[in-house]
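The following record pairs a protein chain with its ligand, guanine.
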Amino acid sequence: MSIATPEHLRAYRASLLHFHADPAFADHAYSWHEDGLLLVDGERIHAAGDYAQLAPALPAGVDVIDYRGKLIVPGFIDTHVHFPQTDMIASPAPGLLPWLERYTFPTESKFADPVHAREVADFFLGELLRAGTTTAMVYCTVHKQSVDAFFEASEARGLRMVAGKVLMDRNCPDFLADTAESGTRDSEELIGRWHGRGRALYAITPRFAPTSSEAQLQLAGELAAAHPGTFIQTHLSENEDECAWVKSLFPGARSYLDVYDRHGLLRPRAVFGHCIWCDQRDFARMAESGAAVAVCPTSNLFLGSGLFDFERADAAGVALSLASDVGAGTDFCMLGTMNEAYKVARMKGSYLPALRMFYLATLGAARSMRLEGAIGSFAPGAEADFVVLDPQATPLLARRTGACDSLEELLFALALLGDDRAIRATYSAGRLVHERPPAR
Ligand code: GUN
Ligand code: ZN
């Protein structure tokens, strides 16, 4: 790759970390440059390496933005989040199903209004960027105007976003129901309008098996087959009451996953949220089909849904990623999400190193979405989405990270103690899209 003309080239000096493989399964899974230089050519990564090696070759006139003392990683990727639930985050309920009835459905009904949808989308995207998240897989509502509002807002910021209209034709309030036919028609129209336009990508989004008829699931599977580059997103085996309900609604299915499988909803770029009550066969089938799991620890703890079994999933080799699942999730930030994921793993008797959690929130997610090469790493030519982390963002972080002896310890402290205050800056396609105001 030739070096760009200086006016398109930007250089960032900081510690750099990015991944090539899952550190749980590979040696040499990451690159670490303690005194590093990230070269960005317009919207894309040009190179990432040691400052001492890259700086002498910089063309004259290129400014070096000095982030020494900070750590730059690829922008975080949140593989499961509901933008319309922003305003109902932290709404308590005794479990998933009453939470949906009491808070979610009334909140989502307001998204028939495109002005409201746009206002919430703008606030939501601001929160993501404050949290260092540059790509998300986003559920909109059943209203197609909620998808237009979301993509218009993300396009205005130039963000790489995946989103889709919720499909829901039964077991929900009438004011939120579509039909198998109208849901497909609207989804097809939205795919035509948004999938691949700028950085927008479309996700076919049946909410979960209980709110879709067999006819709707079938049409969703057919739509997914007709548009293989689109994503599929839904919920799977989150809560025991939900699992029992699915069993009664689909008595012929071997498992909850099998309901989706029978309707052609397992394939690469299908991402299933939660997967707490999946068995070994389910995980093996997901791995075989190329589907992936979005692990949602803050949500699962908040609703009391259960503890994800990392060991069982890893034994099957299914692709994993981390997700906020806001509004059941309680934290937009992937650092806080890692904090809870770590504790969930401990409760199940397993262990998630910080290096792996950073992998899952970056390259692991990109791989789950089949977007590696485009996002999630500093490979040359990748989109220049990155986040500048400040290990001294708070007095406690400064004190703790000042005493760290290894990269693992540093990342662990950031994951366990960090929040949006540790996100010094967020860049998307080479543009500064968030900068933390100086502390007052
Ligand atoms: N299952 C079906 N819909 C939802 C939702 O909006 N949030 C969560 N956490 N689970 C769901
Ligand atoms: Zn969800």
